[in-house]
Design brief:
Chain A has 417 residues and is of the alpha/beta class. In chain A, 46% of the residues lie in helices and 16% in strands. In chain A, a hairpin with a 2-residue loop joins strand 4 and strand 5. Chain B has a domain of 196 residues: MetI-like fold (Orthogonal Bundle), CATH 1.10.3720.10. The chains are: A alpha/beta (417), B mainly alpha (302).
Chain lengths: 417, 302
């Protein structure tokens, strides 16, 4: 072998070695799977990630974005195969299953190591006493009211109690004009109507469906809410087709002026404005039972965040979580997403948002977040089981007492699994 | 020389000749094993375990998941509704497909009109299940067009909640499936009709046969092989229909439109009980296999 050739080989080996060494000390790349990027203004989440990368040299973030349902499927598959992204966007309904499966990591050791101030977090979702998820941004569900229909029906103030709500719904109902007071989506395909449109009545009046983390449905709060829903159905003020109505149908009916009131996510304000710019509507907190003076529970959905149990870069992953939860970044993120912050010290800027957001923020601050399905095992299945019973009640096959008794039995079996 | 001899002794020419056909089918068999056989065996294995996929160390429970399913009244309701939905769909697909095929094959219809009708009648087949679901959910909405027409004609006296009432939901759903699926029959039967020799009809005409007799004794026997083939395939496919049922009713109201596919899906993706879901999936497989048995028998007989 000539000297020249030997040198060529040596330089090639040196180059490969240099590349390998370079790779070894190169940036840590975190995978971050979520469904938020498509729901935020174009480039907004990437921009926040770029800021994070600038503040944390050596860490890069790769966003894995898709629609909500695709992200869910991806997370279920990733959890089963042990290939979950380092940082994952979570829905409260998934947390229990993923935690029990050992797919997401408890955040307590990471918080302890970083001496993290837990009091700044609005809500920490726990399973068996361990913290697994922080709601990063919350979308509350107030009552939306078509002000034109209300005015025409002689409803001059936003209903604050159940009786006022029932009265307003009756006044706004005119079946001959295809117009109804309220819309209740109970399709079994997506049974979240149970959470947002039925159980929200319980939480708004300070009631609960759980006791010590276990089902406790046979209490007067839950029975009373079901009796109220039944009374509205008996009075014929609910838009027909309840059992086949989905959340998007509910919004559609409201947008078209076919229903006077609905309980819906604030995230839909922009959509409603876009679909019907002439619709004149307002929002209010969910009505409570007569005489209730406590804080009103506001149902909510959230963008939660957690860390994969299999992540090889938990420390870096925690840095990203802590960064997103910090008051400044959290405030910025929720302002962009038209949501409410997960950090109690965050000050979102709604000056560029719809004026209703500022109003909703007041309702949010006066009330409290309430969604007892968050963190429960097989939350969707629990809702579906109750949905079937509520459908039976509305069909006249069961009383509210039977609904809670049957659901309690089914839920206890689910909790015992 | 010695090496050649030993190789010859190891695989003789005759053996090699016998192995050649297997070598030809080997790639297809490998693909079949990888894409069909392995998933089927995996699902069967899951169905015999407790908490497959979800639990770290699932345990073998034998046929306990099957027993649990058989003890669930909703399972039997889903089986009954699947058979009802499937049977009615196949019967009406055939009847409507045959009717339209005869119409399009008839010399009595103007050729231009025939081309136009052919395009129109095949349209439902071009839509995806989601589009079909949206169209029919709107049409059959309590405030929808169909109710408005029926009420104007005094056929019904109130707004019928087609998909939201336990008495009408399954039939309404079957109707939508019939609408979505008849073009397959129409196109296949039309092709068959065009292949029936005209002489047969002429000879029957000379013998004094009327239109009904010609249909009964010439058309039907000539089309029987096609009818049996597509009816059996349709039976297997319809038994597994999922997107249409799921997007329209989700199995409700109550359990009135629960079919095997939605029942299985809920167990897997709402209850995260993949073992139970696997056992229901194996039941669907067995139901489909029974129809496949007749299909294969029919094909062999041909």
């Amino acid at each position: 072998m000539s000297l020249k050739r030997s040198l060529t080989y040596l330089s090639a080996v040196a180059t490969v070695l240099a590349l390998c060494t370079g790779a070894a000390i190169a940036d840590t790349t975190l995978e971050f799977a979520q469904w938020w990027e498509p729901e935020m203004p174009a480039g907004a989440l990437r921009g926040i990630m770029n800021d994070f990368e600038a503040a944390n040299p050596g860490i890069k973030v790769k966003l894995i974005s898709g629609p909500y349902s695709a992200t869910h499927d991806q997370i279920v598959a990733g959890a089963a195969s042990g290939t979950l992204s380092d940082v994952v966007g979570l829905d409260g309904a998934w947390v229990n299953g993923l935690a029990k499966q050992g797919a997401i990591a408890p955040l307590d050791p990471l918080m302890d190591a970083a001496k993290y101030d837990r009091s700044q977090i609005a809500d920490i979702i726990k399973v068996d006493g361990k913290s697994y998820m922080f709601p990063l941004a919350s979308f509350v569900y107030p009552v939306f009211i078509n002000l034109d229909l209300a005015k025409a029906a002689g409803v001059d103030r936003l209903p604050s109690t159940r009786n006022e709500f029932a009265d307003a719904a009756k006044k706004m109902t005119h079946p001959d004009k295809n117009q109804y007071g309220w819309v209740l989506p109970l399709s079994l395909q997506t049974p979240n109507g149970i959470q947002n449109d039925v159980m929200s009545w319980v939480w708004a009046s300070g009631g609960s469906m759980l006791k010590d983390g276990k089902p406790d449905l046979e209490n007067p709060g839950v029975v009373g809410a079901l009796e109220f829903v039944k009374s509205l159905n008996d009075a014929g003020v609910i838009s027909p087709g309840i059992d086949a109505t989905k959340e998007q149908d509910k919004v559609e009916q409201f947008v078209n002026g076919r229903v006077g009131m609905m309980i819906d996510s604030l995230a839909h304000i922009n959509l409603i404005r876009k679909r019907n710019p002439n619709l004149h509507f307002g929002i209010s907190a969910l009505p409570a039972v007569e005489g209730y003076a406590g804080k009103r529970g506001l149902p909510y959905a959230s963008w939660g965040i957690g860390i994969s149990a299999n992540s090889k870069h938990k420390e870096e992953a925690w840095k990203l979580v802590a960064y997103l939860m910090s008051p400044e970044v959290n405030g910025k993120l929720v302002s962009l997403a038209n949501a409410f912050p997960g950090n109690v010290n965050a000050k979102p800027d709604f000056s560029k948002s719809d004026p209703l957001f500022a109003e909703a923020f007041k309702i949010f601050q006066a009330g409290k977040l309430a969604n007892e399905f968050v963190g429960l095992p097989v939350a969707e299945q629990l809702m579906r089981e109750m949905d079937v019973e509520v459908q039976k009640m509305l069909a006249g096959q069961e009383t509210p007492q039977q609904v809670v008794a049957n659901t309690q039995k089914e839920w206890l079996a689910d909790f015992a699994k | 020389m010695q090496a050649t001899l030993s190789r010859r002794a190891f695989v003789s020419y005759a053996t090699r000749r016998k192995l050649v056909p297997y070598a030809y089918v080997a790639p297809a068999m490998a693909l079949f094993a990888l894409l069909m056989l392995y998933p089927m065996i995996a699902v069967f294995r899951y169905s015999l375990m407790d908490g497959a996929i979800i639990k770290r160390n699932p345990t073998f429970v034998g046929f306990a998941n099957y027993v649990a399913n058989f003890e669930n009244p909703v399972f039997w309701q889903a089986v009954g509704q699947t058979l009802y939905f499937t049977s009615l769909s196949v019967i009406f697909h055939l009847a409507i497909g045959m009717g339209f095929a005869l119409l399009l094959n008839s010399p009595l219809v103007n050729p231009t009109l025939r081309s136009l009708l052919r395009t129109l009648y095949v349209l439902p087949w071009l839509f995806t299940a989601v589009i079909i679901a949206i169209i029919w959910r709107l049409l059959l909405d309590p405030e929808g067009v169909i109710n408005a027409i029926l009420m104007a004609l005094h056929v019904v006296g109130h707004k019928v909640e087609w998909f939201s009432s336990t008495t009408t939901a399954l039939d309404a759903l079957t109707f939508v499936n019939v609408w979505a699926g008849y073009p397959l029959y129409m196109v296949s039967l039309l092709a068959g009709l065009q292949g029936v020799p005209k002489e047969l009809y002429e000879a029957a005409g000379i013998d004094g046969a009327n239109a009904i007799e010609k249909f009964r004794f010439i058309t039907v026997p000539q089309l029987t092989p096609i009818i049996i083939s597509i009816a059996l395939l349709d039976f297997i496919w319809t038994m597994q229909v999922f997107p249409l049922v799921w997007t329209i009713t989700g199995g409700g109201p109550i359990y009135s439109t629960e079919v095997m596919s939605t029942y299985t899906y809920k167990q897997a993706f709402a209850d995260y009980d993949f073992s139970m879901a696997s056992s229901s999936a194996i039941c669907i497989l067995l139901m489909s296999l029974s129809a496949t048995y007749f299909y294969v028998k029919h094909q062999k007989a041909q």
